[in-house]
Amino acid sequence: MTEPLLIQHGTADDTCPLAWSREVSATFEEAGKDIELRTVAGEGHTFGSRWAAEMDVTEALFARHLR
């Protein structure tokens, strides 16, 4: 992996366990990769009311690394 990775995960996600994202993040971090894990308190798999705010975070990552 050569590009930054952002994982956003709701703490109330009942589709994909938060532990998976934590494990993946730790593995990439141990390998020296540029990774950020953001947990979104109380949100499920699709972030519900926080969708727009989390997409702002995604767009900011793109703006930093793709321009």
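Above is the first protein from milestone M3; the second protein from the same milestone is given next.
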Amino acid sequence: MISVVQNVAIDCADPYGLARFWSEVTGCPLHPEDVPGVTEAQVRLADGPALYFNRVPEAKAGKNRIHLCLRPDTSREPEVERLLALGATLVSDRRNEDGSGWAVLADPEGNEFCVLRSASDRAATDA
């Protein structure tokens, strides 16, 4: 017997707004019934669980205990710049001069996530 992860739940103040941000990040659509003002919204990822955004009354407090790690299909640096332009903020820069490491960003409601090196970035520095 096993369990399958159906979704990754993210508490937030504005489910639709945050789902739109993550839809842009991932290039995946929102659930067709999601509209401004809903109390829950979903981004349907192509593979794997959905990202589920649930309205809660309390604000985020402290560091996330779980977070998403993104591996871009292009190079990490342009992806970090794209995400910042979408409304993310840089929390911690853990990138190293040799190209290793990652960038810690936060979405518009302060939920941290990491941007890792792409496969092409890794191939260029691991060779």
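Note on the second protein: The longest helix spans residues 15-26.
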